[in-house]
Amino acid sequence: MIEDLEMVGRLGLAACGGILLGFDRELRGMSAGIRTHGLVALSSAAITISALMLHESFRATSNGDAIDPLRVIQGLAQAIGFIAAGAIVFTRGHVHNLTSAANIWLAASLGIIVGAGQYLLFLATISIGFTLITVVRLAERLLPGSIKHRQKKNSRSDQEPPQS
Length: 164
What we know:
The protein is mainly alpha-helical and 164 residues long. It has helices at residues 4-27, 34-61, 70-87, 98-115, 119-133, 135-140, 147-159; strands spanning 89-91, 94-96. Belongs to the MgtC/SapB family.
């Protein structure tokens, strides 16, 4: 059985991981920021912990073969997929919020991972995920052929005063 302190630690770690992922989105003014990512990770951890605790208690009181906590993770995956898909917008031939949707998905994954007590997997995932949403985003702007490089170049030329 999961001890109370362990349970609270898992929930806190999941929320912190979600907050860290949401930090980049928040700084960029995206609608899914710190609170959204923290809540997604926290709720995913809570549901995962609950499923594991129910599995333990049912297994202790009955045969327990029909109890499968992986079904909870499957349900979470479907729900988060639905929420993430709703964040994606297609307007005027351009797709927006794909990274936000992927980031929300990652926050849910972190919650599931921590809820299951897989701390090394959490550390590896949060490290790689945070690097992808911060360092790689900055590196994209340096790639000469990338859209982000052209956007950066255009935004700088818009701010420069006209030459006479």
